[in-house]
Amino acid sequence: MTELNQNQLAQLEQSVSIEQLQLTEKVGALKTTAFFKKLVTVTEIKLIAEIKETKQYKDLKVIDQTGKLVTVTTFEQFCQHLGMSREKVDQDILNLSTFGEDFLETSQRMGLGYRDLRKLRKLPEGEREILINGEAVKTEDRESLIDLIEEMSAKHAKEKAERDAQIKELSSDKEALETIVGKKDEKINQLDTQVTKLTSAPEIKKRAESQPQQLAKKALEEASSACLTLHNDVVRFTNHINSILDTINEHELYNIQEQLEANVVAAFQQIAQTSVDLGIQIDFQAMVNPEWMSVGQTQIDPASELES
Question: Is the pTM of this model over 0.90?
Answer without folding.
Answer: no
